[in-house]
Amino acid sequence: MDGDTLYPIGELARRTGLTVKTIRFYSDRGIVTPAERSPAGYRLYGIDAVARLNLVRTLRSLGLDLPTIGRVVDRELSLPEVAATHAEALAAQIRVLRLRHALLTVVAERGLTGEETDLMHQLARLSEDERRHLIGDFLDAVFGGLGSAFAGIMRSMTPELPDDPEAEQVRAWVEWAELALDPDFRAGMRRMAEDQATERASVMGPRRDLAAVVQDQAVPALAAGVAPASRRADPIVATLTDHYAYLVDRPDDAELRHRLLARLESVTDPRRDRHLRSLAVINGWRAPENVAPAFAWSAQAVRARIER
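Above: the chain's sequence. Below: its structure in token form.
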């Protein structure tokens, strides 16, 4: 058949895979027009109608509306420009769907109330400026006024949610923001930062922080099944108290041990581990090591000797 051949609507349907009803619908709206009509009044279409309908079917499957499709097939609009616009719109829809999925998952997992769900939704929908304000407010509450030595720590504690986050990152952001707004959690983090500032100020030159010593001493003890109150734990507690006395420049006495106990227990707060894990997910970092078990064992060991 040559280019002058005309096709009835049934043949056009066979060639394009569309139904007669659909082609008639497109024809009535001017998307594809008949070349002429038969003596009996039936619509007849030229070969170009096949190409137009195939393009229409493709564009419809991509979500374009009929008025836009009509302008594309009539070459009133550039297809690349239309594609770019719709790709951007789809990206926005995908972000919304990820947000909804993340929130619904959190609601289902935690069994949240309506009020809690509303708060989660608000936190997830914060603008970039609102997120920056929340982050800055939290970091200032925890580290403000403690000196430039904490600048690096503040940077490492800053969540950077990507422009196009994955669902897990959205969930992690909601959890991070929820903790950042918790006054009790803020107060606990502030106490830890102040303890670290005291330790830094008391020692001039290189030093090992308390966490490193706890890991060195308590992790092997945990692995070996050493009971915190047993005699086998005595030299470990002695090492911890000696090092802490050095860090804060105080004698190893009852007051120091109470102070050490408070310091150790502050790290065992499960919210701290949740906070660090959510931060790692948001920033795409490797999951941090959970130091809480070693600190909990050390706290039990110190408490056992205080109470003797």
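Residues 88-180 form one domain.
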